[in-house]
Design goal:
The structure is a homodimer of 418-residue chains. With 418 residues, chain A is α/β, with parallel strands linked by helices. Chain A has two domains: 236 residues, 3-Layer(aba) Sandwich (Aldehyde Dehydrogenase, Chain A, domain 1); 146 residues, Aldehyde Dehydrogenase, Chain A, domain 2 (3-Layer(aba) Sandwich). In chain A, the strands form four sheets. Chain A has a seven-stranded parallel β-sheet with strand order 10-9-11-8-7-12-13, sandwiched between helices. In chain A, helix 2 packs antiparallel against helix 5, helix 6 packs parallel to helix 7 and helix 10 packs parallel to helix 11. The radius of gyration of chain A is 24 Å and the shape is globular. Chains A and B meet through strand 2, helix 10, helix 14, strand 13 and strand 16 of A and strand 2, helix 10, helix 14, strand 13 and strand 16 of B.
Chain lengths: 418, 418
């Protein structure tokens, strides 16, 4: 197979389909989504069989168990996949929304209209549910999608792609509006991230290594999501019970998510009071504490933290802990060692809460809430295609709106410029 | 001079200064702007002398007259530069604005806060007024700026940079918040557009050639502005007098601007009626018409248009004209040959006006108004740093808001995720 030619064909088809899907009405898009959800339910066992084939190859290839977990579909997860697609149909359609129409002194009325980005390339690991999920979000936001999932999920992705194209055709929308790259050749990714003519934005979903590599080579704008090294800062006016509760939830509710807290900062004046109960709670949950020298005075179970530990996303029952002089040092530490993802302060002090919100340079900044809330569903976006740690275009959880941009509309009655 | 080391130093300084300028209050930023405006007025003759030195070298180097024009400062243009800076001070400060704070079922309140992008690199031709203008916009939006103007304006840019830094220092803001790249070595640009660690976005202002070259090499996101191949479409329900008035203004008010109309489309059913008066008006203004065969039946002075003419930004008294079957062909033509900048329809028909607004894929889409309105001042942005023909982040005229992004803020009272 000539990969360059294959990807160009996909690109041309996507661009052409994007013009149709961009002007599809809400009803047609929702019909396609409901049809897809029903087709997923109908073909549940066929999807599980395709998944079985993928799993056999993956086991034969000796894939590690975490990857096998992500690759595995069950009856329950297939049902959840279908429900997720139906749920996207219930979200408001962002396309065509006109806002801020205002008259100008010249007599023209100027506003903005929300429009799809065009063609979105999504690159992800071997997680079949992402195929349905990403297809649904792109479709609802009026974009054409080119999906490139991990090659270990190829059979399953192919089967889901067939259902998506069946659903599009059933409601009269162009089947090329959602295409799955049907080759395991890695060169396809290299093509996808450099086809500026055919792809408007790349959304990478997956590990830090994958994204860093794509970022280095991409010629297409990217809604990037690097690591989530999130912080909780316990201020000197923090409530003790709330501190323990928020650290517990932020660190231990789930270890593998990007909004999990990886580093704890504690104001010096309260270290003696706050660290013992926090350390006891963490120890009770089996979380290893890697602490600075002062931390280790109050948390006896802690081992010494290295400089590197403060810059690490553990994704495991490990937390780095540092005692800081106060708010200034906390903010400086977070802006230096953090990953600009999500950080929270626990405090009862109004001015310090405001300063933390303003000065911490992260996609989500919080007061008295667990970092685990940084999520499209929790924020009310309905769904998310990813969490951006970038500053351009979209920051933090990216929902349907993040897959659109705004153009200017001018309504005149014959005005000309003076 | 070691350019890599020099640019890295500038980058490190800009990043450091960006943290301070990001949290500067509105009063300090406005004070700095008014101080700068007054310093420009005070040193008007010194600036004119520096400009004289640039002009002498430029003439000796045989620079073409259009470039000499853009390089030339006069007492009037220096005064306008100062007024422009004062005017930026009067604009609302976008930084810190919190919008859409809403309670979620979990009890947290979620909203967005507008924040600076960080460090903005601006690359422009030898136009000294851009130095003051870009410095003012970056400063007001809380960003640090690295300015790289055309080397022919180096003396003048250096003089303006000194005034900017004086003004920053006078109000206690970090002088490195605005730095001018003080070398004419082109390698500096290559560094600037690849220093991802220190530069958050590049704004190129200048010719198509410059931008295409930067785009090919940049590793930093860019608010790009390629060409402006703008269209007027005279629909079969267009008012005749309005058609002539809008084409006249859109094509002939100024020939060299990016929002000038370069191509005219006319509905076939009205060609016999609309083309003669439009052609007569254009002929009277000395505008050359390059038309399709049908156009030439009704506009006898027209010469044949080539395929290439329809894709060309003339920036001159030349217009391409094509007779089309109707709205569908007009939209398809604009989306194919246009540059996604600004396009307008003249029509009295409601449904066709709506379809044009929705389906033309351009940064600005208009009904019954001149394309010349596509401008930050006319749109009410107060000022513009450029006009984006890109879709990501900012589209169309980019004002202060386009130099910011939004982060999420979460206000809790101790909530944890279930």
């Amino acid at each position: 197979m000539d990969i360059q030619q294959y990807m160009t064909t996909i690109g041309v088809q996507a661009r052409e389909a994007s013009r149709h899907i961009a002007r599809a009405d809400t009803r047609a898009k929702n019909n396609a989504l409901n049809t897809l959800a029903n087709a997923i339910r109908r073909d549940s066992s066929a999807l599980l069989e395709a998944n079985q084939r993928d799993l056999e190859s993956a086991r034969a290839a000796g894939l590690e168990s975490a990857m096998i977990d992500r690759l595995t579909l069950t009856e329950k997860s297939v049902a959840a996949m279908a429900d997720g697609v139906d749920q996207v149909a219930t979200l408001p359609d962002p396309v065509g929304e006109i806002t801020d129409l205002k008259f100008r002194p010249s007599g023209i009325q100027v506003g903005r209209m929300r429009v799809p980005l065009g063609v979105i390339g999504i690159i992800y690991e071997a997680r079949p549910n992402v195929t349905a999920d990403a297809a649904a979000l792109c479709l609802k936001s009026g974009n054409a999608a080119i999906l490139r999932g991990g090659s270990e999920a190829i059979h399953c992705n192919r089967a889901i792609a067939a259902l998506v194209q069946e659903a599009l055709a059933a409601v009269g929308l162009p089947p090329h509006a959602v295409q799955v790259v049907d080759t395991t050749d890695r060169a396809a990714v290299g093509q996808l991230i450099t086809m500026r003519e055919y792809v408007d934005v790349i959304v990478p979903r997956g590990g830090k290594g994958l994204i860093a590599r794509l970022l280095a080579e991409s010629r297409v704008p990217m809604i990037q999501h690097l690591d989530g090294n999130c912080h909780v800062y316990l201020d000197d006016e923090a409530d003790t019970a709330m501190s323990v509760r928020i650290v517990e939830n932020a660190k231990t509710q789930r270890y593998g998510t990007c909004n999990t807290t990886e580093s704890l900062l504690v104001a010096r004046s309260r270290a003696a009071e706050l660290l013992p109960p926090v350390a006891a709670m963490l120890a009770g949950k089996g979380v290893e504490i890697r602490g600075c020298a002062e931390t280790r005075e109050w948390a006896k179970s802690a081992v010494p933290a290295s400089e590197e530990d403060f810059a690490t996303e553990f994704l495991a029952p490990v937390i780095s802990v540092k005692v800081v002089a106060g708010l200034d040092e906390a903010i400086a530490h977070i802006n230096r060692y953090g990953s600009h993802h999500t950080d929270t302060i626990v405090t009862e002090n109004y001015s310090k809460a405001l300063r933390f919100l303003r000065e911490v340079d992260s996609a989500s900044v919080m007061v008295n809430a667990s970092t685990r809330f940084a999520d499209g569903f929790e924020y009310g976006l309905g769904a998310e295609i990813g969490i951006s740690t970038d500053k351009i275009h979209a920051r933090g959880p990216v929902g349907l709106e993040g897959l659109t941009s705004q153009k200017w509309v001018v309504l005149g009655t014959g005005q000309v410029r003076q």
